[in-house]
């Protein structure tokens, strides 16, 4: 099997969020895809198969299949538009979260994703214990979204993954209003055997709706303050959130199975 590793939401190697991408003629077994994801040990491995004019797309973490992933979708769109469908500027994927499009716009790749509906929930001691700081507000969609007071607080979290894994929500996203950027965030997924996701596209389908409403603006530039860092250029359109970013190819590989 031929595979690619792409650093997404960055234009520099070794930054952003790395995803493995496999473009295939037919589907391997779920068990094999899961084993490949575990072997890759990246936050996401994407598998795609052409279906007519569209592509079916699935995402696997080391801890299991997931229903939505931004950076691996961007990475897959980047590979297809630059190596397989070079005459096109848009790819449509059929996924567990419905149809998702990746559109090439100059050197950016824009994704049209569903926005998560956020329900405000009480801040608990367990939430604060999991990140070691006071939380101003908390919301629950697919993920838990916690709002803190400053970018410095986001940078200096004292993480307790044993506590975090017991909380509601698939991932935990921690965010604050930014200075240079509209917002600064970090994303954690211990339930998926990922401690920190370097740049989380699906997490921003929670983060962007929150800040768009709070700042009363549609266009949000978001900074992911992980060790690798990443920048997302976002637009909130109600039930849809548009995420744009750069991508860069790190490697082309062959998997012998």
List keywords for this structure.
2 domains, 43% strand, Diaminopimelate Epimerase, Chain A, domain 1, 21% helix, alpha+beta, 6 helices
Descriptive account of the structure:
The protein is an alpha+beta fold and 257 residues long. It has 2 domains: 125 residues, Diaminopimelate Epimerase, Chain A, domain 1 (Roll), CATH 3.10.310.10; 120 residues, Diaminopimelate Epimerase, Chain A, domain 1 (Roll), CATH 3.10.310.10. It has an 18-stranded mixed beta sheet that branches. The longest helix has 15 residues. It is globular and about 50 Å long. The protein starts with a strand and ends with a strand. The relative contact order is 0.19.
Provide a quick synopsis of the model.
The protein has 257 residues and is an alpha+beta fold.
Structural class: alpha+beta
**Strand-residue fraction?**
35-45%
Proportion of helical residues: 10-25%
Kindly, what is the distance between the CA atoms of the first and last residues, rounded to a whole number of angstroms?
8 Å
Shape: globular
Oligomer: single chain
Radius of gyration: 17 Å
Number of helices: 6
CATH architecture of the largest domain: Roll
Largest sheet: 18 strands, mixed
CATH first level of the largest domain: Alpha Beta
* Average pLDDT level: 96
Instruction: Flag low-confidence runs.
Output: none
Count of distinct structural domains: 2
N-to-C series of helices and strands: EEHEEEHEEEEHEEHHEEEHEEEE
At the fourth level of CATH, the homologous superfamily of the largest domain is: Diaminopimelate Epimerase, Chain A, domain 1
Number of strands: 18
